[in-house]
Amino acid sequence: MFDNPQGTPPTERGIRIALIFALTAERLSAFYEHGQWMNEGQGATLAADWLRRTKRTLPQSERKQLSGLSDDMARQIAATLSREAGLFTAYEMMEALDPNYQSELAQAMMLECERLLDASEAS
């Protein structure tokens, strides 16, 4: 997900979108697996871990903001889908964290992450 198949480095905006996607996938997976939502701080820590793996950093305030966006998205998905559809969505998103995995559903979710980021920057 953080790799760019064209070989060019991802943009800062692309990294933020991918991070919202990854956090949403992790939140949904944890929710369906354990029946609990991560809090914003846990999400920000998970964001820092994701960034560290790719040798990138973002300020804590921005990690918290992106964590909040992912929380909103994950809760909206869980509230609007049946349990089975939610489990499938979480599975597809987690699988799509591997850049070799192609999924139309994950691509649609990535576009929604982009829309969320754009909306948050506009307000």
Describe the protein.
- This protein is mainly α.
- The chain has one domain.
- Helix content is 73%, strand content 0%.
- The chain has 5 helices and no strands.
- The chain has helices at residues 12-34, 40-53, 60-80, 83-95, 104-122.
- Helix 1 (12-34) crosses helix 2 (40-53), helix 1 crosses helix 3 and helix 1 packs across helix 4 (83-95).
- The radius of gyration is 14 Å and the shape is globular.
- Mean pLDDT is 90; it is low at 1-5.
Ordered list of secondary-structure elements with their pairings:
Layout: H1 12-34, H2 40-53, H3 60-80, H4 83-95, H5 104-122
Helix pairs in contact: 1-2, 1-3, 1-4, 1-5, 2-3, 3-5
Give a quick rundown of the structure.
The protein is mainly alpha-helical and 123 residues long.
